[in-house]
Design goal:
By secondary structure, the protein is an alpha+beta fold. The protein has one domain. Helix content is 23%, strand content 43%. The strands form 2 sheets. It has a 4-stranded antiparallel beta sheet, with no helix packed on it. Strands 1-2 form a two-stranded antiparallel sheet. The termini are far apart.
Length: 105
Amino acid sequence: MLVLKAQLGPFSRMKKLRMAKVSSEPHKLIRFERKEISGRDASDWSIDINFKELDLITTEITFVVSYSGKLWTRTLETVFNTYVDQARTNLKAYFVSSRPQSENE
């Protein structure tokens, strides 16, 4: 289950998505798509996680999130995108800080 949430003052929006892995290529790609069991028609969501080996100990990971619907008004969508940008920065910092230090560092 993937939970996305954003809040601006008294306004908040939360999405709970049931995601399923639909394909993968070892060391290259994992793809998840929304798979709801309710039977209701829902907007498409997908997440592609791409892996690119830079050297023997470093891998670049890229997340691409796609959504076919609208979350809310343009103003609130801008705020949501700000949260996404901050999450991207935090995730990158987390992985950099948890990387093992080499003897030369």
